[in-house]
User: Fold this.
Amino acid sequence: MIAVMTTLSPSASVSTATDPLQLIDVDHVRFYVGNAKQSAFFYASAFGFQVEQIADLTTGSRDRAMYLLTQGNIRIVLESSLTKDGIAAREATQFGDGVKDIALTVFDAEKAWKQAVKNGGESAYEPKTWSDEHGSVTFAGIKTYGRAVHTFVSRTGAYGLPTVKNGGTFMPGFRKVENFALNAYNKANPCGLKYVDHAVGNVEEGKMNHWVKWYEEVLGFAMFKHFDDKDIGTEYSALMSKVMASGNHLIKMPINEPAEGKKKSQIQEYLDWHDNTPGVQHLALRTDDELHSITELRRRGVDFLTIPDAYYETVWNRVDKMLTEHGHQVVKEDHKAVKDLGILVDADDEGYLLQLFTKPLQDRPTLFFEIICRRGSQSFGKGNFKALFESLEIEQGRRGNL
Assistant:
């Protein structure tokens, strides 16, 4: 639960930057998967993504296949190896399908990478540029917690981010996907997902403050929110969480660690099934209409956590009281529809939010999605933590992992 990687339009940024680590946007999120072609079909069918572009044997890529999926301002790159020794093949075997890289658009990837390394970061890989007569794309990577990487991305010419957002080629070596039937279906039946709102990192017990310091010193972030085991816990399990934000609050990153409890927390379960290696636990995807998005996703067969009926016996008084105390209008969404769809609701002094969490997206209980709609609130559903954890514990118990 945490985090927030709120992504705004790069058009709002200035055209030049003196700070090499000024972040413009979430360029893309890269998944390492066992079979990119089949994964692309799953995310298109279940979540309504456009299978937009591809790099594979047909485009001259001899060692890996990559599919670019898009929806709103969300860009996901699914990568799988074409050889047994490829890094994506090794990591898919070790960790299962999951997020490898949260890539960040900057003005100059090489300068950003050099500054991050100077600040104490460890390089994941040195700057590399792909270019042709249309423009260029430069990647440079830095290691963060566990298997995760942040790639700095800078773009020129026809590969500039505004052009890519409007359907331009992602980078040299990619081609458009033609005649993929689900693309037309998804345009006619949209799921309404707009942005990567946030991403959550799970780390080992006792390591949260280490990575908080890392984001402060290496990327210049500052703490935005802090939740302890009194905020996020039940009778059986708990976690600690701190949210780190970039200087302009454009990017917010969360760090979770398990806390002591009578039984195993969801964070520890993740680590157990992720080869005891920290990584990205979930991505929160923003929608402007929670009821529409959840209705469509449920119709497509997406599995969500089950929220107990008792939750709705108290939620409206709690939320509406908070909103009226701070001069905000009460929740405008139909209360019965919210309950029927199993959506969680929370409020703070800035407004309210609606959210719901999928079950794990693969057989290992690791990566999942959150679907979130913000009506002013910039928090993370603190009032829902208990109900959410109880639902998670039910699922952990079914898996034999509680």
